[in-house]
């Protein structure tokens, strides 16, 4: 069934879908890693492709930036296109000195300021979590590949440009082990829990908010190769 945001046909997506924020990253992933990539969605240029990785079907769909955008694509992937395993392949800012630029971050949990999650669970503070099986698989595979990775609490913020300067906007999160900041994982985990599917967010740290080290625009794509290969191996395993 097509949707206002996705003109793919039933069966166009694999059950395992990678979710980068950037549509051009989706295209790059399909063209670089997939065998026989086929464009399945281009509505709003939020590109989606299906192909195979190591002989197994897999898709990639750009989520756009932020939790409202990701929520639309993920809701439709699950409910209209049968997605069962959703793995975000994103970039994040670093909030902890132990995380270096280019390190891979597995978002074990996702703290958020977003009204998509916040307030929905009153009087409780819901803790959006990664699927444990996917998390364990990603950690084991990262170890086997010799990849430097960190697993922990990610901040999924609705705000990229905080009013407060530097690290001030992150307040007590800094003293409580939150390791990185991106803009989508909490909504992904909450939707996955609601609809009984599996989700994991894997990010490459591209901008350290403590040291201000960052990956240059030219290096950004190549530095994501390890993360994408890891995500693809996890995605097609089930
Ligand atoms: O590189 P992507 O996957 O888009 O992820 C990060 O980059 C965007 C902000 O620049 C946000 O979407 C954030 O989550
Ligand atoms: O600082 C950053 C870097 C990447 N993505 C974010 O959301 N924030």
Automatic annotation (TrEMBL):
Keywords: Glycosyltransferase, Transferase
Site features described as Important for catalytic activity, chain residue numbers: 220
Domain Nucleoside phosphorylase stretches: 17-231
Catalytic site positions: 207
GO biological process entries: purine nucleoside catabolic process
Function: Catalyzes the reversible phosphorolytic breakdown of the N-glycosidic bond in the beta-(deoxy)ribonucleoside molecules, with the formation of the corresponding free purine bases and pentose-1-phosphate.
Protein name: Purine nucleoside phosphorylase DeoD-type
């Amino acid at each position: 069934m097509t949707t206002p945001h996705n003109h793919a046909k039933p069966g166009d997506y694999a059950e395992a879908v990678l979710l980068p924020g950037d549509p051009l990253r989706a295209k790059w992933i399909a063209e670089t890693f997939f065998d026989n990539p086929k464009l399945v969605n281009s509505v709003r240029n939020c590109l989606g492709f299906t192909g195979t990785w190591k002989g197994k079907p897999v898709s990639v769909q750009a989520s756009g930036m932020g939790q409202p955008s990701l929520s639309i694509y993920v809701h439709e992937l699950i409910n209209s296109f049968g997605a069962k395993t959703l793995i975000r392949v994103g970039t994040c800012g670093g909030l902890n000195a132990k995380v270096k630029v280019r390190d891979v971050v597995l978002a074990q949990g996702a703290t958020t300021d977003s009204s998509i999650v916040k307030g929905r669970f009153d009087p409780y503070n819901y803790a959006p979590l990664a699927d444990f099986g996917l998390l364990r698989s990603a950690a084991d595979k990262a170890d086997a590949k010799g990849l430097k990775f960190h697993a922990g609490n990610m901040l999924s913020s609705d705000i990229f440009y905080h009013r407060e300067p530097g690290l001030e906007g992150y307040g007590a999160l800094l003293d409580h082990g939150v390791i990185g900041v991106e803009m989508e994982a909490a909504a992904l985990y909450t939707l996955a829990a609601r609809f009984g599917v599996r989700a994991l967010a894997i990010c490459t740290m591209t901008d350290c908010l403590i040291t201000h080290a960052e990956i240059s625009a030219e290096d950004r794509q190549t530095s994501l190769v390890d993360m994408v290969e890891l995500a693809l191996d996890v995605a097609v395993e089930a």
